[in-house]
Predict the 3D structure of the following.
Amino acid sequence: MKVRVLGCSGGIGGRHLRTTSLLVDHDILVDAGTGVGDLSIAELVQIDHLFITHTHLDHVACLPFMVDTVGDMRNRPLTVHATEAVIEILRNHIFNWSIWPDFTEIPTPAAPFMRFETVCVGVPVQLGTRTITPLPANHTVPAVGYVLDSGTASLVFSGDTTICPELWDCINAMPKLRFLIVECAFSDKERKLAVASKHLCPSMLAEELTRLQREVDLFITHLKPGQIELTMLEIEDRIGEFRPRMLQNNQVFEL
């Protein structure tokens, strides 16, 4: 299994800043932020599955464009995997014929360009030799993280979350975990904002990592533009013993 980072920024503001999306092999996406826009049409056509953590725009902005662009080039619908609550939000607020056409009915309900598939926390989805399992998360809207498992190693992506003991219980139970990608959206000077928006800042991330009971390669995602250097300095000061690294666009993980 190969996981390529298409976007990992908490915002926009330059050629290297793309919002959240991970490409798994050639046919699976985890989230569909603005990083998806850098894929070619040939690459977009190959994507059969999209797993969504939550419905904030930085994680779903490219989904409407993607299905519109390549729907008629494919011989089967794009399957969008998400929790029931996330699917309801997508139906009500994006694919509602007012913001965007409902591609679960286009060109016909019997043969649409897109279909939804409900996932549940803790219940794995098997795609060939690969397993993708939703994990608990705690955000301002219904949200999950995901663990990507190749059969020999696994990677955890937290999605957007604040304090969430249940997530760490799941992480500690993973015998093959190799990589942990966790958000840290704000610097400590904006801790109040992090708490209000249910994100993490370095001091909160340090508190969460006291729950971690295993060795992992730790990567930081969702840094806010304009605060990247400050936040990473604070992270190094708070949790330097974990050897945290900033996630980078086009970084590739082999599992």
Q: What stands out?
A: The radius of gyration is 18 Å. The mean pLDDT is 97. Helices lie at 41-45, 57-60, 63-70, 84-93, 165-172, 191-196, 202-209, 228-239.
